[in-house]
Amino acid sequence: MPEWLTRTFPPLPAPEEEYWSGTTNGTLILMGGNQNGRNDRVLEYDLATDTWATKKKMPFSANHMAVVGYRGKIDVSGGATLEGTPRAYGVQLFEFATAAK
């Protein structure tokens, strides 16, 4: 029967709720993070070096996004804004390029 493995990670540099995640190139990318109504933070965890890095903010603020790693990039679609009237980003696709390993 499979077992759950546990591992201790370094502390998250910006603990928040509402992160969405994807993996690519040996990294875990967290996007969003509710910061008093802004959800545009990008954090990268490098599995090889066991370190977190804060990356350039997303060009939009949204939550409840679909995030997937594909061919070295993180693709983001869907989500809703928090500034005023909710609207979906479902018709747009944003890419976050990570450094190749």
Fold and architecture overview:
By secondary structure, the protein is an all-beta fold. It has a domain at 19-49 and 59-97. The protein has no helices and seven strands. It has strands spanning 19-24, 27-32, 41-46, 51-54, 63-70, 73-80, 93-97. It is globular and about 40 Å long.
Secondary-structure map:
Layout: E1 19-24, E2 27-32, E3 41-46, E4 51-54, E5 63-70, E6 73-80, E7 93-97
Antiparallel strand pairs: 1-2, 2-3, 3-4, 5-6, 6-7
Q: What are the defining features of this structure?
A:
single chain, 101 residues, 4-stranded antiparallel beta sheet, 3-stranded antiparallel beta sheet, 7 strands
Major pleated sheet:
4 strands, antiparallel
- Low-pLDDT runs of 5+ residues are none
Q: Average pLDDT, to the nearest integer?
A: 80
Report strand %. Answer: 35-45%
Query: Strand sequence of the main sheet, in spatial order?
Result: 1-2-3-4
Q: Note the total helix count.
A: 0
Report the C-alpha radius of gyration, rounded.
Answer: 14 Å
Order of helices and strands: EEEEEEE
Could you provide a short overview of the structure?
The chain has 101 residues and is mostly beta strands. It has strands spanning 19-24, 27-32, 41-46, 51-54, 63-70, 73-80, 93-97.
